[in-house]
Each structure stands twice: as C-alpha cells, then as structure tokens.
Amino acid sequence: MNQTAPNPQQGTASGFQLEFADASFFAQLSGALYWQEHKTLLVADLHLEKMSSFAKSRQFLPPYDTGATIKRLAQDIANTGAERVISLGDSFHRDEGTTTLSVQDADALSALTSKTEWIWIAGNHDPSEHELGGTCCESVALDGLTLSHEPNAEILHQVAGHLHPAAHVRINGRSIRRACFVSDKNRLIMPAYGVSTGSLNILNPAFEPVINRREMSIAVLGKDQIYPVAKRHLIGR
C-alpha cells in the first residue's frame, strides 16, 4: 500500500486528478469524485430537503434546493458515465426528508436510482434505512479504502464527508473562501455536495484529530476549475 501523501495533479478533460492511497479519482467542480476504475461517482452531504425541514420551524425559505441538487447529480452521472453512485451520508437533512420529497423531485431521484447502482451510506443526519431505491448501509470497503460518513482517525485510507471542508485562501493581496477537498496520507474528506450546505474552514480545530496538517493537501473548487493550494496561503478565519 502506498503510504505517501495524496498529490493533486493538473486537471484533465475528465476533471482534476486526485491520487489517494493507490486510487485515482477525477474531482468534479460540483464536489463529486469520479472513480473511473470502478465507474463510481462519490458524493457527500447532499442534505436533500434541508429547506423543507426549516419550514417546520417557521423558517420559510424557497424549497428548491432538493431539485437543484438532484439536477446536479444527473449532470455528473451523464458527464462521467458513472454506473454506480455512493452517497457518503447526510444525503437527507433529516430522516423525515425521505418522506417529504415533492412528486417531481421523487420522480427525478427515482429515475437516477433505477438506472445506476445506488448506495446510501448512513450519516448523522439520516441514520435510518429508507425505501427510495438503492441499498442503505453503514460503510463500504472497496480496493483497500473505507467509504463512510464521519472522518475517523482510527480508520486507515478513509474517504469521508461530514465536515464540509472549505479553504480561506489569500494570494497576492486577495482572499477567497471556497469549498475544497482536503487530504493527508490516511484520509480524504470531500466537500458538501448539496446546493444549500454550509462549510467549515479546514484550519478549524475540528479537523485536527483527522487531518495531519504537515501532510495536508488541498484542492479548491473554483468557478471554472479546481486548484491545488499551498498551505502557506491558508487563512485561519
């Protein structure tokens, strides 16, 4: 097993290439990873039905996030030719979100789960099984990698979500804050995929137990492409 730190390389027509633990992925601007060897699209933290769950607490926001996220998924599947989708937890903002989908969104999601092998990994927001098509499970082991929701320092060669990583970067007197992929030799943490999700600075203490900052590699989601970023450019706020 290759123990070297992940090394983001220049992007190709299929996406930005990320190497991790002997696996090669193509990162997409959406925040997905395409694992070409297995024809598998990885996504994390869709948080479907987030806006509808807010409405229950009388926070009335336009409930279009679910449809927009499903549309993004359909586009990534079409662009990559993925035959399998693995969603790494918090696919729904709450367990009851599986029952509040509009007819239009439910049909659109069903169209995707019926034409691909679909695996739903449990998250902290949506730990229960459902009947929306596909398979529900706690984690997936594939080619020496563990695919699961919450980063865990005791798991070697893990791909996870949960923390919604973002990098605040200052270069040449200008600063931006963008969602990102962050990794070290043992862990690759994916950005949140859902269109209405927040993010957490990768220099936040929450990342310290699961990402070794000395070995940290960062790939930031830009407007038109994904950029590798050196640690010296990071801002911790």
UniProtKB/TrEMBL annotation:
Q: Which residues cross the membrane?
A: none
Matching Gene3D superfamilies: 3.60.21.10
Residues in Calcineurin-like phosphoesterase domain copies: 39-131
SUPFAM superfamilies from the UniProt entry: Metallo-dependent phosphatases (SSF56300)
Question: Matching InterPro entries, A to Z?
Answer: Calcineurin-like_PHP, Metallo-depent_PP-like, PdeM-like, Pesterase_MJ0037-like
Q: Which PANTHER family match?
A: BLR1149 PROTEIN (PTHR39323:SF1)
Q: What is this protein called?
A: Metallophosphatase
Q: Which organism is it from?
A: Maritalea porphyrae
